[in-house]
Structure formats: C-alpha cells, structure tokens
Amino acid sequence: MCAAPKVTPRPSPMVAIVDDDLAARRALSRMLRGASLRVAAFSTADELLDAFEDVHPACLVVDVALHGLSGPDLVERLRSRAECPPVIFVTGRLDVLPSLKQRGLGDVPVLQKPFEPSALIGAITRALEREEARQN
User: Do the domain assignments include residue 127?
Assistant: First the structure.
C-alpha cells in the first residue's frame, strides 16, 4: 500500500500592521489572527522598514497619522523601492482623502475608525486577490 504524499499547507498570508496606538494594534492583531492571518505589528513606520525583509508582508494595514514617518510617507518610500505590497489605510479622519489623492495614493483603500472587522477582512482579501491576479 502506497502512502499518500504529504501535502504541506500553504501558510496564511502575513499582514503587517503599523499603528502607533497600542490598543488599536492589539485589537487589529486579534481581529486578523481570528481570520487565520499571520500578523506582525509595529508602532512606527521605521520599525516596519527595519524588519521588512524578515517579515516580508503580503499586505499592510497602516494608520495614516503615525508619529515620525507618516503612513503615506511609508507607502511612498516602499513604492520607490518597488517593495510595496497592497496597502489598506486606516484613519480616524476622512478629511485626509484629498491629500492622499494629491500624493498619488488615491488608489489605496481607506477605512475610517471604528470599522467593522468584516470591512477590514474584506479589504485585505480583495487586496490579496488583486495582487495574486497581478502576479499571475
């Protein structure tokens, strides 16, 4: 009798969260882990940049208004290095939308805090599906 070949399950995508609010980072991390996603959480954009090669995120969830390097600054820096996975911005203020469009970041989905977990999970799922289709 032949043994069935071992199938190694594909690991769930890694989502990096960048939010300077500890409570928000924890809540987002729990939410995404509950959706069977792997999570790496960072309090600053610089922390993510320092760990980017090791973490290799499939998607980023980034607060627009971070201390130090802002969320839009982070995305521009990653795009200039051609290392930018799909991004979802989260913010407490939607008045940032015009400035994001002016900076050429109008294509990045924006969720206003507080949002339903399903809204974030759906945005991540769509972003990962678009990225996979783009690469194939």
Answer: yes
| Spatial strand order in the sheet of 59-63 | 38-42, 14-18, 59-63, 87-91, 110-112
pLDDT in tens, the chain (136 residues): 555 566 556 678 999 999 999 999 999 999 999 999 999 999 999 999 999 999 999 999 999 999 999 999 999 999 998 889 999 999 998 788 899 999 999 999 999 999 999 999 999 999 999 988 888 7
Tell whether 118 is covered by a domain. yes
Nearest CA-CA partner of 110 in 8, 98, 44: 98
CATH number at residue 71: 3.40.50.2300
Bridge partners of 90, per DSSP, are 63, 111
CA–CA distance, 7 with 67 (Å, rounded to integer): 44
Q: Where are the alpha helices (DSSP H) in the chain?
A: 22-34, 45-55, 71-80, 97-102, 117-135
- Is there a contact between 21 and 63 (Cβ–Cβ < 8 Å)? yes
This prediction has a pTM of: 0.90
